[in-house]
Amino acid sequence: MRWEAQEPKAAGSEDALLALQGVVRSVRTPEFAGITFHEVIAKSALNKVGKTSGMPFGWTINPYRGCSHACVYCFARKTHTYLDLDAGMDFDSQLVVKTNVAEVLRRELARPSWNHEHVAMGTNTDPYQRAEGRYQLMPDIIRALAASGTPFSILTKGTLLARDIPLLKSAGQDTEIGMGISLALLDPDLAHRVEPGTPTPKARLELVSRLRDAGLPCSVMAMPILPWLTDGDESLDALFGALAGAGATGVTAGALHLRPGAREWYLSFINREYPQLAGKYAQLYSGGSYASKEYRQWLAGRVNFFKKKHGFTSKAEFMPLRKAGAESGQAAAKAGGDASTPAASGASAAGKLSADTLF
Ligand code: SF4
């Protein structure tokens, strides 16, 4: 695959998708310029997570495949190649929509064998990407999970989540929920370059505050920290200070992880936008998907220093599940984070995150 020369290739890509089972139609609308939605009839909604994955949840739901948030570092890019689409522009613009996902989910949750394990959303692609404004799949998914008493978590960069805060508050009375916002940098210009389809960092900080004001827990996934772009003391200090100010109940940070798919796309971005860093990146990631051990140890030290400075516990865990209202307002974080509960976040990753990549 030649990454440098990739262009959208709608016609061929759609042909590939239409060859897949379950595609009902492909749609383009002026409101979503450059994006094609491939509506499919899904046979299943719940995906089992392998016990060896190391993930703290047993199941996931992905109402969408591909993600218009278009983060250049996205771990999930490679999963698009399973659809005979590419992990670059196709991942950003050829989106698969499981239009019947809630209906299928309700059937699956009604099975006597359903064991009410933690269901995670946002672990592969973002459930509150822009498409959700058009398809509105999440409200019925949340209702189905809450009605069945199934604990669930949502990780997102999408401020569209605010639409569902009343519903989440209600769901949080029936079952335990975990909320996570993904935010690892504050510079709006840099965010526009590396996460071009996402709401601004300021908008995501405001979303953290709105969730906390609503009495919902809200962790932040400050990942990935980008070598030479967001790993400086000034950036980390400002980031963790802003997260504490917004009321985040915990933070998990992690160094950039470049698994296949993400690796090629991200490094082509560095070559194009920051050619002076290309050699440094090649050296830092010469051992594979992970930055060198020395770099990760150094970064863990800086992250933990600034987390402590702003009142966050240094422990890194995934989103803790709680009933809504277990904490009130922003009190905990205004005091500098919730030291009584672990820091938390989900992973925007189909990939496995080892303990030494999260801190
Ligand atoms: S990192 Fe998350 S928000 Fe960004 S493109 Fe991937 S799934 Fe979407």
TrEMBL record:
Signal peptide feature range: none
Domain of life: Bacteria
InterPro entries per record: Elp3/MiaA/NifB-like_rSAM (IPR006638), MJ0683-like (IPR040086), rSAM (IPR007197), rSAM_sf (IPR058240)
Keyword Iron-sulfur: yes
Gene3D superfamilies reported for this sequence: 3.80.30.30
Database matches in PROSITE patterns: RADICAL_SAM
Pfam families for the chain: Radical_SAM
Region listing for Disordered, in residue ranges: 332-359
Official protein name in the record: Rv2578c family radical SAM protein
Organism: Arthrobacter jiangjiafuii
